[in-house]
Amino acid sequence: MAYVIGIDIGGTFTDAFVADETGRVAATKTPSTPPDFAEGFLTVLDDLAGALGIGTADLLADTNYIVHGTTSTLNALITGDVATVGFLTTRGHADSIAIMNLEGRYAGLGSDQVQDMVRTNKPAPLVPRELIREIDERVDYEGRVLVPLDEEGARVVIRELVAEGAQAIAVSLLWSFVNPAHERRIGELIRDEAPELYVALSSDVSPRIREYARSATTIMNTQVGPRLRDYLRPLEAELHSRGFAGSLLVMQGSGGCVDSSDAPSRAITTIGSVLTGGVVGCTRLAEQLGHRNVISTDMGGTTFLAGLVIGGEPVATTSTVLNQYSLNVPMVDVHTLGAGGGAIAWLDPGRNLHVGPRSAGARPGPACYGEGGTEPTVTDVDLLLGIVNPDNFLGGRKKLSKDLAAEAVRTRIAEPLGLSVDEAAAAVYAIQNAQTADLVRQVVVTSGQDPRDFVLYAFGGAGPMHCASYAADLEIGQVIVPLGPTAAVFSAYGLAASDIVLTEELSSPSNFPLPADEFNAAFTHLRKELEARLTAQRLRFSEVTYRNEVDLRYTMQLAEVPTPVPAGELDEAELEKIGLAFGELYERRYGKGSGFAEAGLQLITYRTRAVGELPIRPLLTEIPVAGGPARPNGHRRVFLDARRGWQQADIYDYRDLASGHEITGPAIVEAPTTTVAIPEGCAGRVDRLGNLVMRYNRSES
Amino acid sequence: MAVIPVSGSEDFANLPMSPEETRRVVGDSVPLHDVDRSLVDGIDPLTYEVVRHRLTSITEEMGDALKRMSGSVVVTDCNDFDAGIMDEVGDVVQVGLYNTELAASLDMAANWTLRHRAHRPGIGQGDMFLCNDPWVGGGLHQNDVSLFAPLFIDGELFCWTGAVAHQVDLGGVSPGSWSIGATDVFWESVPTPPVKIVEGGEIRTDIEDVYLRRSRVPKLVALDLRAKIGANNVAHERIQALCDKYGAVVVKAVMRRTMDDAESRLRAKLRELPDGSWTSVAHQDSARAGDREIYKIVLTLTKAGDQLTLDFTGTDPQVDGLINCTFAGLRGGVIPVVLTMLCGDLPWAPGGIHRCIDIVSEPGTINNCTFPAGIGKASVASTWATTNVTTECLAGLLDTHPEHGKRAMSVCCGTWDFTLLAGVDQRGGGFVTMVCDSMAGGLGARTDSDGVDTGGLACIPMGRVADVEMNEFAFPMLYLWRREEADSGGPGRYRGGVGASSCFLPYGSPLGGVHLVVSAPGKALPLASGLSGGLPAGTQHDVLLRATSVHEAFAAGRIPSSLEELGGELDLLPTHHETDLGEADVYFTHWQGGGGYGDPLRRDPEAVAADLRAHKVSARAAADVYGVVLDDAGAPDPGATEAHRAALRRRRAGLEPEEAHA
Amino acid sequence: MSIRIDDNLEQAADGSVSCRHCQAAVGVAAEPLRDARVRLSAPRDAGPSVRSNARHFTDREVVLRQSFCPGCLTMLQTEIVPGDEPSHRTRTVAVRA
Hints:
The complex is a heterotrimer. In chain A, about 30% of the residues lie in helices and about 25% in strands. By secondary structure, chain A is an alpha+beta fold. Chain A folds into 6 domains: about 5-75 and about 230-275, 2-Layer Sandwich (Nucleotidyltransferase, domain 5), CATH 3.30.420; about 80-220, Rossmann fold (3-Layer(aba) Sandwich); about 275-320 and about 450-495, Nucleotidyltransferase, domain 5, CATH 3.30.420; about 345-430, no CATH class; about 500-615, Dna Ligase, domain 1, CATH 3.30.1490; about 635-700, no CATH class. In chain A, the strands form 9 sheets. In chain A, strands 13, 14, 15, 20, 23, 24, 31, 34 and 35 form a 9-stranded mixed sheet that branches. A 6-stranded mixed sheet of chain A has the order 3-2-1-4-11-12. The longest helix of chain A is centred in the first third of the chain and has 31 residues, at about 210-240. Chain B is of the alpha+beta class. In chain B, strands 2-1-5-4-3-6-7 form a 7-stranded antiparallel sheet, sandwiched between helices. A 5-stranded antiparallel sheet of chain B has the order 14-15-20-17-18. In chain B, β6 (about 195-200) and β7 (about 200-205) form a beta hairpin. By secondary structure, chain C is mainly beta. Chain C has one domain (about 5-80). Chain C is built from no helices and 8 strands. In chain C, the strands form 2 sheets. In chain C, strands 1-2-3-4 form a 4-stranded antiparallel sheet, with no helix packed on it. Chains in contact: A-B, B-C. The interface between B and C is large, with 70 and 48 residues.
């Protein structure tokens, strides 16, 4: 028997999923164990083995690989528990990471915060000024050495940084991505002076033009690299001592994983490790259901996440913002859109009703939790409108107080506005849904797409209570709530079903098209790097595919668009075709006539993604077929739509449902992990995998 | 030569006009959509919030669209543009978070267009009007080109949308339209009053040619015109859909209520502040190349009940030069800080906010000039100085209140350090570009914290500078450094944010060198004042070094990191200067920080020690201005600091130390 | 009840303005800095932030004008302005009836 395991460690829960090659699956969940997350990791393995009815040692001995989604890198950066880093850069440019292109004062903030400009600040410096040194050396934009590296000077400052307590050193020089010679030599000098130090070079970590983000990325990588190394090494040793002979893989933000031995040197790629599991899960599910374009919405207690799958592939971005720093990290593009169920409803001094972006968080949480929260939240409203069953929230794991929810809505919203509690709650519900639709729409539109071409997937504790409404607003015809046996550990399933994905990129700005031999040489170089790294993963792949792309732009315009490049040696004519394809992508994204072709094209970055498909691809299992019609186990009054008001709705227990069951709105389906609201005009159907598929009747949307 | 009045120019001397008066003038030449007052008052909170949120999101989409399509670095990398949604008479309902001084007079331009173009050539669906006449509005100087578009619903003019951006060159004597020798507007880019450049959805190529012909970079300007068309189209599509769903009257009611809400909340805030008046002054040195005069804008801000009056009486008359601004420019100077300091937590609906503000200003003054006074650099001259003086007065008002005082700040980066390069780039193409590094000015100190270092400019909540590598890739230049400058932030109990400097030389142009235009006041005296005794930020400091030894230093393996190391002949540049840079000539431009807050001798000595470590203040300033004595480890010595501060306190007040015992 | 004017000054109900640090009388509502000690000096006395001599750029004299609390010598106002201009910086917080 051969197993694959996915383990997703979030802040609260550690989820696990296992599959074998015959299609048998099991899933478990255990509380996370900060700060030593490894403990929960080992516990959940025992649980998994138990679920399969075998011993942990047997399970581990037969496991080919474990894919691990970890929040540790992200947590380290957010809490500032990182290695003390020294930074070396070109003379004259030490302040680049303090100036932050000035965008660091507002990057990543919501528009309400940006507008409150007087209260905005830059984050704390990435590296204190005392730990930054400048070096005499200079390369120009074509990679020509203007000033050779001052090796003696470099040695002196390396010794100074070590003496001042640097535990790791980041090196980022101007134009190093065009000519990395100086950085590499400094790397050698550091190894010579201080062999034990963790070192990262910007030309390795992020060989891309724009020194600010490249330096910030390299520094953050250096801050978390040693920590990730110190986390993974003992964990791997422990697993092996328990009989594990396979590979421990770490999920990256890009939606693909990397071997744990390779991970620390590119630690920054693991931020977003836990965010992406859901999108990867959606992608795999979409494959099984035959959906090409999916909007994935994950609404939990404190966040609302949205991602896109287009043409069967998760939409990726090449950069992100963390702690207001801009980073070059290829990632699945997961947008955090304000708050989830904990979003607070409030009145501004003009007595206008708003929902979020402030959240009651996990503590004190919604008023109905009875843990001291007095402000009304979306979850309180869901309760008051009859959507949530106070005795069966999250499968009955938490009892909710309707009185406390009503009290919060009454005092904070209803009375000041002269509304009844019901009216106020209905308004909050509708505003939350409309706002969500606005934000999701922005995500879809800015990637050049039309929401109407998508199927919407909704998961997370709160998503299914709202998705029918915001999907209708977006004119989306079909909504899927993943509910099968693995719904509770959907992200962990995504991990187990992922591939090895390695990305190499190289900025080499030039006019486009350029001579074909130069173009081909760049990709040959990237391919070689990737082949070496794939070999180092120590895994057997069923198939390896390489996908090339170039970031092109119109010479006078800023926006770069990643444009696919066919495999193999290309000739001039094929390069021309790439230019045309870019033009089409550009227009699709930014509108007809938006591209200024007369100015000519420029190529900024070459990128190759290697996808190593792993031999076991777990599939979701089918559930039993229904013997008769679905039977509700009760009725209650619900308010799902302002046009309909309060209605009597059928209440279903998901555990009573089987494949093929049809449910007509207004109805509520209570599942162990969530509650699904099906408004009037909408019909739900349980599919063969146990998902609830909702569609609006044509006349309703 | 003195400015000679131009008969007929009074038609363009535009002032804001009330909706009622506008409707009267327009008569029935264009049917204007309206909504009954009762509907505005009766709109339910749910619909209000849903539609309002959607209008905000449409404004953001407009900004995104413009930014993506534009080809100007000042737009794409520096966010020097804005967009807004207006009602049927032009009152602004929602403005984007970009350069708010640009958007501050969109309403005046749309309103003027309504009154002057409705009869002939007419205003119809699919039309868009282009304007770069700051006497009419829609921008501050001729480089600011606005494009605004009426949206018709069911045959009625429902609303306007508008987009405006800085265009890098629209003609005039000097590259960048920055004619530093200008004595009047005829040296500069031609102002174009609102002209229908898009008709029924199609660009009128004859008009477009008239517009583009004046520019040194017509293709770039053509591209930006399309970007603005795109932004308006995006907005029209979305507003149309919103009206289809909720009904035009409901959407209009929400627009009205958004403005009413901003007004009533601002009024409520004003009522919480004490009545009084605050007077201040902002200076500028030099009106054009060769001029050595200093000019002033004087403002008395009076707050009575829930109304503000800004009275600019005492301001200097307009001058022969390029630094004047029109009334639209004055308003553009006022609005950014009203938004950030008074309305940081209120909806940015200028149409409502304007109602709380009366402006008193005499035509013919430097920030309310009459045609044909030169206004080529209005945005960063008299408009900016207007922002500075407004900042100081508003901060004084806010400082009286413990809560609202948190949104007060001292004057931010006292001016724009204009550096323009033109010539032939390393790929052989002609280029003109404004080096936007000085976007990273220092922000003013706050009443409870330091100003943000290299944090931006008062007028652009989301400014940005390009990476050194992007500039070196795009233009024939090589940087020796770009760094924060110690002491450039105004000293105070809370320090103003520091500014920075860039130092570069021409590199890679087939011509060998590049053409340079410099225009930056604040050299004879600092422009970013402090508050509560805090000192102003540093002066502007631009230095041209001719025939330096930079290439010898490179050959010797060194990167020069100070002006002294560069050798050569030092030329301390005046406010306005235009010249060519040769291969071994190095240009150093050092822009300003923000003003300080409170007495620097009351600054926490630990904060001074930290500033010294972080190169934010020099050892000299730490000792002489902040009075902090540090031990060998760089930590403050409390006893010595106290004694030194006591002595400094007397010395700076002009008292002898021995009088201490008197 | 007194009103805060800024970091250093407050105004009593009767309109008298005093130092918040040492309570010394500084002025009255209509002229809050009436009794402050004023000193004029060269702009470069402000510190290294004034990078060069004003004479290089203008023929007018530029001065550093500072006002100090007559009691504790706290700096109440600083401006660098043309010396031939009176100070335009003033304020009046209304005395509440």
